[in-house]
Design brief:
- By secondary structure, the protein is of the alpha+beta class.
- It folds into three domains: 1-117, Release factor (Methane Monooxygenase Hydroxylase, Chain G, domain 1), CATH 1.20.58.410; 127-226 and 314-366, Alpha-Beta Plaits, CATH 3.30.70; 238-306, Double Stranded RNA Binding Domain.
- Helix content is 49%, strand content 20%.
- The chain has nine helices and eleven strands.
- The strands form two sheets. An eight-stranded mixed beta sheet has the order 2-3-1-5-4-9-10-11, sandwiched between helices. A three-stranded antiparallel beta sheet has the order 6-7-8, with helices on one face.
- Helix 1 packs parallel to helix 4 and helix 3 (49-89) packs antiparallel against helix 4 (92-115).
- The radius of gyration is 23 Å and the shape is globular.
- The two termini are 43 Å apart.
Length: 367
């Protein structure tokens, strides 16, 4: 009976995997990888650094996508063998191992299934996230730093290459804002559902009377676009300020004016970078983020105009998209999807995959 239960679940997983492979078009993906490998092997490619980076990045992304699909298929094959051995030997330990692997494959297939919903124009791009403290004083600044740690831990758990590009520290505790780059396939597609206003309710550690405090932080996520798609920005449209990088309490971490702040005068958009060692590197990184933000702004304006012409103006994500409640009870709840967990510490340790999956599915239903 046990082997029949396993067989039925494995059969269902294989069918779901086959459906996913069909949607992704594995044959076309393999052909794309072959073509990109040939381009990457061409010695002339590196005469154009921008083009070389584009090709190698695309190759890395394509290989990662294929590896996930192939890995699930291999794990299903191995699981069938493991189940046969467990049933034949009637070994409880091996059966428990098979059940654990079955659960893990369920999770992997679900992640692949969610990935098939990431079909937006920029979903495959790397992402740049900006977190800003909002209303709530010191608690809000502390909350913004808690979110920074949460997303960095999420990046670690998912093998994203993360870079803190700039952080502005608050005077008493926490941060005013931070900008993080997530360099991984589909980072923007996944993290874009985190955009919005986050709310924290807790007994304030900064209040001598220990009163309950509500504070807010805003999260913005944009795709880090390939340089080929960058918006041209006239020098007359920007103001560039340089300053020394600093850490908490104003402690100097650099002896030269290497940090760069670029202000786009027509829109008022400000981008600051202090992660790189030189002023030129920080300026280049800041310009790339500014170009991405301007292109996103341009696309949003075009989309808003289309909705206006169509007479179908709908509300956006709303002011509060997620609540983190630490007192008087423990809960984190997404207000759009109704997805919730009762372990805030796990969430703040980067365990937000469930929220992201639910958000991606919710977004797909709205379109």
């Amino acid at each position: 009976m046990l082997d029949q239960d396993f067989a039925a679940q494995i059969k269902t997983l294989r069918q779901t995997h086959a459906d996913i492979a069909q949607v992704i078009d594995v044959a076309a993906l393999r052909a794309e990888i072959t073509d990109l490998e040939q381009q990457a092997a061409d010695p002339e490619l590196w005469n154009d650094q921008a083009r070389a980076q584009q090709v190698t990045s695309a190759l890395s992304y394509a290989k990662a996508k294929l590896q996930k699909i192939d890995a699930v298929a291999a794990r299903l094959d191995d699981l069938e063998v493991l189940v046969e051995l467990a049933v034949e030997a009637a070994d409880a330990a091996t059966i428990a191992e098979a059940e654990k692997e079955l659960g893990a494959i369920h999770t992997a297939v679900n992640e692949l299934e969610v990935q098939t919903l990431l079909s937006g124009e920029y979903d495959e791009c790397a992402a740049v996230m900006t977190i800003r403290s909002g209303a709530g004083g010191v608690d809000a600044a502390d909350f913004a730093e808690m979110l920074q740690r949460m997303y960095l831990r999420y990046g670690e758990r998912n093998n994203y290459r993360t870079t803190v590009m700039e952080t502005s520290y608050a005077e008493e505790a926490g941060i005013k804002s931070t900008t993080i780059e997530f360099d991984a396939p589909y980072a923007f597609g996944a993290l874009s559902v985190e955009s919005g206003t986050h709310r924290l309710v807790r007994m304030s550690p900064f209040n001598s009377q220990g009163k309950r405090q509500t504070s807010f932080a805003a999260v913005e996520v944009i795709p880090l676009l390939p340089e080929a798609e960058a918006v041209e920005i006239p020098e007359s449209d920007i103001r560039v300020d340089v300053y020394r990088s600093s850490g908490p309490g104003g402690q100097s971490v650099n002896t030269t004016d290497s940090a760069v702040r670029i202000t786009h005068l027509p829109t008022g958009i400000v981008v600051a970078m202090q992660n790189e060692k030189s002023q030129l590197q920080n300026r280049a990184a800041a310009m790339r983020v500014l170009q991405s933000r301007l292109l996103v702004l341009q696309r949003e304006a075009e989309a808003a105009k289309k909705k206006e012409l169509a007479g179908n103006i709908t509300a956006s994500w709303g002011d509060q998209m997620r609540s983190y409640v630490l007192a008087p009870y423990q809960m984190v709840k997404d207000l759009r999807t109704e997805y919730e967990v009762n372990n805030p510490q796990q969430v703040f340790d980067g365990g937000i995959d469930g929220f992201i999956s639910a958000g991606i599915k919710w977004r797909a239903q709205q379109s």
